[in-house]
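Methods — Computational structure assignment.
A single polypeptide chain was analysed. Its primary sequence is given first, followed by the predicted tertiary structure written as structure tokens.
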Amino acid sequence: MMLNPSARSLYTSALTPPPGMVFDEALATTFSMDPALLLETPVYLALMAADGQGDPDPLSVLEAMRRYAKAISVYVQKGRIQVPRVAKPNPLFGYLEGMVIEVGAPKGGVFHPKIWAIRFVDPDGRGAMYRLVVLTRNMTTDPSWDLSLQLEGAIGRRKAAQNKPLAHFFKTLPELATGAMDKARQAQAHRFSEELHRVVWELPEGFGELAFYLPGTKGYEWRPPPANRMAVISPFCADEALRSLVKETKAPVALISRPETLSGLHKETLALFSQCLHLDEAAETEDGEALNPADHPRATGLHAKAYLFETRHYTDFTHLVMGSANATNAAFQASNNIEILVGLVGRRSKVGGIDALLGDYGLGEYLVTFDCAGDSEGDSEKQEAEECVEAARRSISEAELSITCAAALKDDLWALTLSGRIPPLDGIVSAAVWPITVLSDLAVNLPAGEVDGGIALGAFSASSATGLIAFALTTRHPDVSARFVLNLPVTGLPDERNAAILQTMIRNQEGFIRYLLLLLGNDAAGALFGAGSGTGPAKWLLRMAEGEDVPLLEELTRAFSRYPERLSEISGLVRELSRDTRNAVVPERFLKLWSVFETAVGGV
């Protein structure tokens, strides 16, 4: 069945390379994003590189972060980056600055698409293929019920007409950026656009047609097909949008949404559908048993968005349209949002239909009928507070803010200053701001208006200097607040910041040797991570200190002859870690050994 609730997948599984392929680069879009979840992406890739054997070594995670930071780009609605929920600050968040590109919708709506395009290549780099993951969820840890569609295909010679909307979408992404954008990121989007235009997709079993739609983009809009029957799954709905969908259908069978959304619709709108349903809050697991939420996180609430139509043309067909668009005016009527949808068509006998969706093998056991009699009036004070906090979020996001970094009076610390005019924040009783690389305990108050000399955020270590700045807003209503992050332009970052971040992970000379082996691609490096190993880093370090010849010379020589580009990486690493002689992690003996290769590296 096409929408089987028993067929579940993890967000990270999309990154797993097909057999015989390796990860190359990826481009993703999302409305909201949790930086901690994005940080897990290179961790997962590091696990895959190690064949998933045990937890990845911290230094292998660091290397994965440095390597993939340039290969992964994430476009996110400005003002919708979440504040990470972490027990302690993580300096690696600083590496996300270049990966995260804040964007906005030009017509006053929001940037709402949720999609991953992932490029895989042969180990020799000659062949390439794409995986496209169309989602209804954002890049967050929200446990709501969602849908995803995964397509794979090889790059063909000719452009495919069905891919034209998809190619247009990726090509225009850089134009939506709200700030300065790196040329390499722009080139990546254009490269993806050109190649995706030529991909030949393998369709899911039973489906014979594929189409992409961009609601709100002229020439690529979606219009519901004239149908005999229809079902709508959408967590957020509007009366006008639903009435427009119903016009094209003889029998609107079901509307599946959230109880609070259904409560806000006119009764005349609800009456258009034979059934109005929502998820049963008591449905915890398939077998009704309570599971440990840490091991088996329970899906709660609805975030899936899908539109099902049944048509008749010599036989019965099912049209499935899914993606980011809710059944709202912003998505379909005013078309202010930037959205993406994918449509599939297949014979109902092969892919199922609306009855299968609502049956016991579909969502049927999880759904209950909406009770209009149980409707209650909304909390007007809460609604007003929510409107205030969203208006404040938007005002701060649209303000021209920036960060200045300068050496502080105290050695080794760097002062961060927030510059720009803070707009009036009506309905907000308190506002605070801090870098996400430190705990919120260090937040400072955010005054409205222009502050002479800017707002001093504090003095921090070089590894904590960042343009990723968190904001916290509170209202008079106890249940309404907001916390979000902006990726602000920053000037004056210390040259040693990257080295400082590295040193938080590579804390000593043993750690340097371990990390060096990872860069060299030593196949036996995994065996070197175990404490007490006879050939471990500590043993190598001791032998170097005693002036004894060690295999490092052999490894460097092999890398120079086979993979000279790896020595260029090591050259940059040595330069960065040698900046601070007070916390030297590069063994003196290695520096003497490395000098032999320094001139050769310059010619690579």
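Note: The chain has four domains: 11-202, 213-284+300-372, 384-493, 506-602.
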